[in-house]
Amino acid sequence: MKQLAFIVFQDNDNARYLVDAITEDNPRAEVQYQPAMIRIQAEKRLEIRRETVEEKIGREWDVQEMLIDVISIGGNVTEDDDSFVLEWKN
Amino acid sequence: MTMQKKKLGLKDKYRYLTRDMAWEPSYQKKADIFPHEDFEGIKITDWDKWEDPFRLTMDAYWKYQAEKEKKLYAIFDAFAQNNGHQNISDARYVNALKLFLTGVSPLEYGAFQGYSRAGRQFSGAGARVACQMQAIDELRHVQTQIHAMSHYNKHFNGLHDFAHMHDRVWFLSVPKSFFDDARSAGPFEFLTAISFSFEYVLTNLLFVPFMSGAAYNGDMATVTFGFSAQSDEARHMTLGLEVIKFMLEQHEDNVPIIQRWIDKWFWRGYRLLSLVGMMMDYMLPNKVMSWAEAWEVYYEQNGGALFKDLERYGIRPPKYQEQANIGKQHITHQIWATFYQYSHATNFHTWIPSEDEQQWLAEKYPDTFDKYYRPRFDHWQEQHANGQRFYNSILPQLCQVCQVPALFTEPDDPTQLSHRQIVHEGERYHFCSDGCCDIFQNEPEKYIQAWLPVHQIYQGNCGGGDVQTVVEKYYHLKNGQDNLEYVGSPEYLRWLAWKKLATPQAPAGTGDRRDAA
Amino acid sequence: MSVNAIGEYRATPRDLQANFNGMQMLYVHWEKHLIFCSPFAFLVAPAMTFAAFVEQLLSDAIKAHPDSARVDFNEAVWTLNGERFVPDYAASLEANGIDHKSMLRLNTPGLNGVQGSCS
């Protein structure tokens, strides 16, 4: 059985850059658009990297800023100053 | 060359907030300060192993929450100023909000109380901080929901006096008793019930597809509070998973206790969410996904990944998950049929789905809708057209545990009502399922005290002996305005007037004494 | 098992017969007629005859169903609290062994609900 790590954002301007960054860093990620929301999923692991987001958004970006736009997540969370990782370990 | 001193990293900041702000008591015993930490049998050997992956500190918490609130209230203002309620897909949609405000929002307040209490009881500083933040989040949720819906209350019926209704109206004892059960448990069971089983495993089903549905039905206010609340939920869900892993890693003796709680709270949550399933399948005029599809994505797929991950601790999936997976094809139709026939005692309206909607249901539920449920709706439609809109005049039998009428069918036979009965200390008790019966048998003293609305009415404790008196005097509902059939209701007529639509030929049933018009 | 509590935990059932002012609860489910979504909950006098219960309460409760006119109570198959049951129509509910919060299931052979769908 598949084990999908996923993250869901509100479909807003910030999320566009996040989605761009995530798809660049996670080439296997699948993006689904539903009314008012965007769901990104990938087998086992999904990563948001600060550097890539900053490049896309064109300013400094704190990893915790994602808390404003996120709706839901699936997977174990590991967060530090440079990245936010969702992962199924088993 | 001078280097600017690097600001504190997330890990350091979080460590200062939790470990370094806590202290070891010197003149009181720890057991006296945290008297509820041991009685459930959960063994904690090292609270320092508690990890909050978000490592949110208070300053960051206030900053992000303030930003969320600013965005949210700007949208509420815009919604009100632009008469947003007139831009929703159809007035029938608002009936889902009535159920939400009376059934869900008070649970947010219950969660605020629950986390305040649980947080007080943990001797670990990390757990206390997490509970404190979540308590504040939950208070924010109930407040924003009331604010969002106060606009609808100006223009629609059945949204007044929601807190009073939550305590009294028969079907609202389903969510109310769910939360009372959790809040009256010990602090570790409370976290397993709400943080893990509810927040992690099940709330996606409430807040993600339903709120997406609100957007799809033109309700900017609701989708915004829904997603704003859910943005806190991502933190809560993470906490839920971390709590479970923490308890499981602390001691192997914790495993069977937690397994029993997971079995219990999965089943209680599943029963509670049958109301949400009905909202998605029957109360959203524009539909995003069916309950069965949502269940597949958010429970079968996500829950599957989760329980596979927890296998390494000796945890298996919830005991009756197979029954729930079968039930996804049935429960929403069964629940809607129930509210349809007891609509004289609800704060919202019900109706027969349109032909297009029934077609959608038939496509989404190819094995069940046409075979088992469409004949019911066809028959009621015909009766309504003949002036006999169906209301069930006899009160229903309720399950002693979930308090939902005993309306669900056997997992292996959708034509047979599922009913379980036991005698405990000379008294008979009735249940909707093996899941609810098991919960009772594990803690009978708790559930023999259940305040079952039907029995309370018959005992004479609800203001009167007949349903209309109970509805008006005890529930504070206006008969003929807040309740009954949607077609022909004052709200329906008002909507037609707003939209400058001609009043269609009223169905013959509107002349019936029980009908709203 | 019992409740895990911070102290001694005792509780009284909330729905003892004594709380129903001389009456008792009786639940009835008509099988294969799921238009009635769940078993009916009736408040009944223990001294009421089974015949009076059927004629006055049950018949009225099911009259909205098109099958109700075709119910032949002489042919009906009953269970009481899970056991096969042959009611004595002239005797009281109490004398029939129908105690507080009893559950009756009514099966009417040949009647299978609206369009035979068990609705």
CATH-defined superfamily of chain C: Phenol hydroxylase
Number of helices of chain B: 22
E-strand count of chain C: 5
Taken in chain order, the helices and strands of chain B follow as: HHHHHHHHHHHHHHHHHEEEEHHHHH
Name the shape of chain C in a single word.
globular
Low-confidence stretches of chain B: 508-517
Named CATH topology of chain B: Ribonucleotide Reductase, subunit A
Q: Look at the structure and give the CATH class of chain B.
A: Mainly Alpha
User: What is the quaternary state of this protein?
Assistant: heterotrimer
**CATH class assignment of chain C:** Alpha Beta
First-to-last CA distance of chain B: 83 Å
Order of helices and strands of chain C: EEHEEE
Number of strands of chain B: 4
Runs of chain C with pLDDT <50, length 5+?
A: none
Arithmetic mean of pLDDT of chain C? 96
**What's the Cα radius of gyration of chain C?**
17 Å
Gyration radius of chain B (Cα, Å) is 24 Å
- Named at the architecture level, the CATH assignment of chain C is Roll
CATH superfamily of chain B: Ribonucleotide Reductase, subunit A
What number of structural domains do the residues of chain B give? 1
Which fold name is given in CATH as the topology of chain C?
A: Ubiquitin-like (UB roll)
Plain-language structure description:
By secondary structure, chain A is of the alpha+beta class. Chain A has a single domain, classed as Monooxygenase component MmoB/DmpM (Phenol Hydroxylase P2 Protein), CATH 3.90.56.10. Chain A contains two helices and seven strands; from the N terminus they run βαβββαβββ. Chain A has helices at 13-25, 50-57; strands spanning 4-10, 30-34, 37-43, 45-49, 70-74, 76-79, 83-87. In chain A, a hairpin with a 2-residue loop joins β2 (30-34) and β3. Chain B has a single domain (47-511), classed as Ribonucleotide Reductase, subunit A (Orthogonal Bundle), CATH 1.10.620. Helices cover 58% and strands 3% of the residues of chain B. Chain B has helices at 10-17, 30-33, 58-81, 94-103, 105-121, 125-153, 162-168, 173-183, 187-207, 209-216, 220-250, 254-283, 291-310, 321-327, 331-341, 355-364, 369-385, 434-442, 444-447, 453-458, 467-474, 490-498, and strands at residues 409-410, 413-417, 420-424, 427-431. In chain B, a hairpin with a 2-residue loop joins β3 (420-424) and β4 (427-431). Chain B is globular, with a radius of gyration of 24 Å. Chain C has a single domain (24-116), classed as Ubiquitin-like (UB roll). Chain C has one helix and five strands, in the order ββαβββ. Chain C has a five-stranded mixed β-sheet with strand order 2-1-5-3-4, with helices on one face. In chain C, a hairpin with a 2-residue loop joins β3 (77-80) and β4 (83-85). The longest helix of chain C has 13 residues, at 50-62. Chain C is globular and about 55 Å long. The mean pLDDT of chain C is 96. At the B-C interface, α15, α17, β2, β4 and α19 of B face β1 and β2 of C.
